[in-house]
Task: structure prediction
Amino acid sequence: MSANARSHDFFAKGNGRNAWLTLMIPAIFALALYCVPLPQDHVLSIHESVLPQTARTMSHNGDWLIPRRDAIAPWLENPPLPQWVTIALCTLADTCSQAWVARLATGITGALVVLLVTLMAARLFGNAVGLLSGLTMATSYEVVRYATLAEDEIFLALTSATAMTCFVFAEFGMSKTYSSEPILNRGGASRVWGSRPWLIVAFFATAGLTNLTKGMGFGPMMVLIPVFCFVLLSWNRARFRRYLWAFGVLIFLLIGLWWPVAVILKIPGALEVWVYDLFGRASGDYALMSKPFWYYGIALA
Result:
C-alpha cells in the first residue's frame, strides 16, 4: 500500500476520539485567527454599532422581543437572535460596553461555522477532505471578515450551516473508505403525519431558526432552495416523502414565524418594512441598493 493510500486509509477509518480531535483543528485555528484583532481595535464601524447597541439597549430595558437602537426607535430589519447571543456573552464577560465582547461573539460563531463545514465534508468525502474544507472555510475572505466584525451575517451562516449539517447527516451514511461518493441513507417511505428520525426533526427546527437571524426570509431560502433542488433532482420518492412531513412544516413555521407574528401584533407597520427590505432589493426600488434583479449577473460576468 502506498504512503498516499495509507494516509487516506488513516483518515477514512479514524472514527474514534483521535479522529474527532483532528476534525476540531480547523475550528480551533479559526477561533485563534478571528480573535487576533480583538485587543487591537476598540472602535466599532457604523455597521458594527447596530448589533452591540441594540443588544445593550435590550439588556437594559428588558424588552427581549424588539431590538431598539435607543429607548424609542425599534430596529426591525433583523430578528433578535444575534442580540440574545451577544447579551449572553456580555453577561459572562460582565460588560456590554466593550467592542471586543461583541466581536468575540461573532468570532466564536465563525469558528462553529468552520466546525460544521468540516463535519459535513468529512461525512461526505472522508476526514482528509473534511480538514481541507474546514481550513479553506476558515481562511475564506468573507468568513474572516464577518467573523471579526460585530454584525449579524455570521449568525445566519451558523444557523444555515447547522440546518445543512442535519440534512447531510440525515441523508448520507458514514463512508468506510476514502471516496468521493458518499453512501446514501436508504430510509423507507414515510407517512405525511408519521414520525421521523431526530436529524430530520432538527433540520426543520434549525431551518426555522434561520428566520430569526438576518432579515425575513433570507435564511429559509438559503437552506430550503438547495435542499428542495437536491431532493427533486435525486428523483427518489422515498426521500421526497421523508421531507413531505406535516409535523416538520409545523415545527418550521412555529420557530420561524412566532417572532414576526408577535412583532406585527405589536407594531403594525413592521410587515411593510420587511416586504420593502426583501423585495425592494430585487425590484431595484431599494434606496440603499438601487440595482435591478439581474445586477448580480452583470457584476459576476
Remarks:
- The chain has two domains: 3-262, 268-301.
- The first strand starts at residue 172 and ends at 173.
- The first helix runs from residue 3 to 13.
